[in-house]
Write a structure and sequence with these properties.
CATH class of the largest domain: Alpha Beta
Number of domains: 3
Structural class: alpha/beta
Strand content: 15-25%
Largest sheet: 12 strands, parallel
Strand order of the largest sheet: 2-3-4-5-6-7-8-9-10-11-12-13
Radius of gyration: 24 Å
Shape: globular
Length: 412
């Protein structure tokens, strides 16, 4: 008779993936303010811990799954009002001790979500120690709480971590207090191999007083190919615009609440994929002559912004995505059809996003259902694949960018 401990490791890992309801192709952050999200994560961990107790043969594989994606989060409603991060600080300290006792566990960690808390004098040194224990870290999701100013990283620590870092997905977030400009620049220097960068933060007020050096200090990021930016309207002049100017190989850019078009010159000409979420302005995409994908989604984009972009977009466009909320006019649908006919010979796919609350029997103002609208567009645009997509299809391109296609560790 075959025992549970005789099951091959590859099969066990597949089983534990299913037990934990983990999508191996997607990284998803745990939101500490979302009760259902937080408890779903805790349930998955409890299930893996139960698997680890089945037998000695299962324990190391279950442990590998537990430490593959580490989320140091505490549901904030359960913490003391004057210090909501006390539980996170304790969990971070426990994690460091566990990794120091068993260094092999640290090599299993591919994703880490945590907060950088200003309420301790040794906050920077503790983070440096933790990162040094994670040689295969690929995804780093960091929230900075800078209610009080954080002491900058030592140059020796930056140099040491940057030489060994494999981080390719970096998310920088902040509480309303904001992020210090020098901390932001130092974090980018620590992870020079970053390929996907998520920015959802504000800068601290000091940057506007002229009390700090506003010069770009992160250097060129040659591997950066994907930027997702939101909630950093007051940081764009000092953060996003210089970043775009120092990312020569950028391929994909997702923006929420698009800023005025005078900053378009900062985007590299070779950009291939542009996502505009709740765009309020006509975005001048004329200079983006290699553009292959244009996505304009959300509840806000007016007809003028959509048509304005389509009329000047490069004929290289292959994919187009629009929200059904903006296709409520027969005239607008007709204008889009005409523009596609005239300008986009390479267009092969059109995605229509179904916003929450809509359904296939939705009756639009022009008297047809969404199904009828797609059939009508299809008749006028033969050879183009047209499909309805759920709102979740575009989740990884919407703030707060809690989901992202997982980046694999490349050995070699």
């Amino acid at each position: 008779m075959t025992s549970a401990g005789d099951c091959p490791g590859e099969i066990l890992l597949d089983i534990f993936d299913r037990v934990a309801e983990r999508n191996p192709d997607t990284y998803r952050r745990v939101e500490p303010w979302d009760r259902s999200d937080f408890y779903a994560y805790r349930t998955r961990i409890d299930a893996l811990l139960a698997c680890a107790r089945v037998c000695k043969g299962w324990a190391p594989f279950a442990q590998l799954m537990i430490y593959r994606d580490v989320h140091v989060v505490v549901f904030h409603e359960q913490d003391l009002a004057h210090d909501p991060y006390r539980g996170e600080r304790r969990a971070q300290s426990d994690l460091v001790r566990a990794l120091q006792r068993s260094p092999l566990l640290g090599s299993n960690v591919q994703s880490l979500q945590m907060s950088l808390l200003q309420r301790r004098d040794n906050v920077i040194s503790d983070l440096v120690v933790l990162l040094a224990l994670l040689p295969n870290l690929v995804h780093f999701d960091l929230t900075v709480d800078a209610k009080d100013l954080i002491k900058p990283f030592a140059e020796t620590d930056i140099a040491s971590l940057s030489r060994s870092s494999q981080v390719r997905y970096l998310a920088l977030r902040s509480t309303p207090g904001g992020v210090q400009l020098d901390i932001y620049n130092q974090l980018l220097r620590m992870f020079p191999s970053v390929e996907v960068l998520t920015l959802t933060f504000h800068l601290t007020d000091e940057v506007y007083s002229g009390a700090v050096d506003r010069a770009w200090a992160a250097g060129v990021l040659p591997n950066l190919r994907d930027i997702r930016s939101a909630r950093c309207v007051n940081a764009r002049a000092f953060v996003l615009i210089p970043l775009l100017q120092h990312a020569p190989n950028l391929q994909s850019l997702a923006l929420t609440e698009v800023w005025k078009e005078e900053h378009i010159d900062s985007i590299p000409r070779g950009l291939q994929h542009l996502v505009l979420h709740n765009a309020w302005w006509t975005f001048d995409v004329t200079r983006l002559t290699s553009l292959k994908t244009l996505v304009m989604i959300g509840n806000e984009p007016p007809d003028t912004a959509i048509l304005g972009c389509l009329r000047i977009a490069s004929p290289t466009l292959e994919e187009l995505a629009l929200s059904v909320d903006v296709l409520e006019s027969a005239q607008l649908v007709e204008e889009i059809e005409n523009i596609i006919h005239q300008r986009f010979p390479a267009l092969s796919r059109v995605y229509i996003e179904m916003l929450e609350g809509y359904n296939l029997n939705l009756v639009l103002r022009h008297g047809s259902s969404v199904k009828d609208m797609i059939q009508r567009i299809g008749e006028h645009l033969p050879g183009i694949f047209i499909t309805l997509t759920p709102e979740s299809h575009f989740d990884q391109f919407k703030a707060p960018y809690a989901e992202v296609q997982r980046l694999r560790i490349v050995k070699g």
